[in-house]
Amino acid sequence: MRIAKSMLRSRSFWALLILGGVLIYRFYDEYQRVQGETLLSWQKTASADCAVVLTGGAGRVREGFDLLANQGIKKLVISGVYSNARLREIMPVWSFYGNLSENDVVLDRRSETTYGNAQQSLPIVEALKCRDILLVTSRLHMYRSYQTFRATFPENIYIKKHAIIGGRSEASVWEVYFESLKSLFYSLWAY
């Protein structure tokens, strides 16, 4: 009983309690934002100067090549590929895409994180003189990716979301929970 009374009088107890409450609130907010990302890429025709595809999930790279083949974009940046990867290894069905030019595809081999994707893609996008980009990633990953790219890229480069579903149509609670934790972490230092 005496320990409980002394804890209630302690400033550090109240500070930790308030900090815990703030963290729980921020996590809940991030969870709602991650889960609230909508999938509009199927409802409208996507077009931009360039697309930046974030590797790491099924269907993303293929979507980038589809955008390039359908002339929705002029240049394709694939960010986060393995350092020794070759273009034909990444997209083995290249020959089925007709008259695509390898000069229209840039591989970023240095990125390993979403933050790295944004940092490494910016000079490539600027060198390609892209005024707007399509950010291609999964619906679950889109909130954190967009926020990170928006914080990294200058305002004069317009970023359009192009979310895809790379597997199941609905993410599990654990996948959303884990992405929300990553988003909370990123919100503290990246955006």
Secondary structure: elements and pairs:
Elements: H1 2-9, H2 11-35, E1 50-54, H3 60-69, E2 75-79, H4 87-90, E3 105-108, H5 114-127, E4 132-138, H6 139-152, E5 158-164, H7 173-189
Parallel strand pairs: 1-2, 1-4, 2-3, 4-5
Structure characterization notes:
- Strands 3-2-1-4-5 form a five-stranded parallel sheet, sandwiched between helices.
- It has helices at 2-9, 11-35, 60-69, 87-90, 114-127, 139-152, 173-189; strands at 50-54, 75-79, 105-108, 132-138, 158-164.
- The chain has seven helices and five strands, in the order ααβαβαβαβαβα.
- It has a domain at 50-170: Rossmann fold, CATH 3.40.50.
- Strand 1, helix 3 (60-69) and strand 2 form a beta-alpha-beta unit.
- It has 191 residues and is an alpha/beta fold.
- The radius of gyration is 20 Å and the shape is elongated.
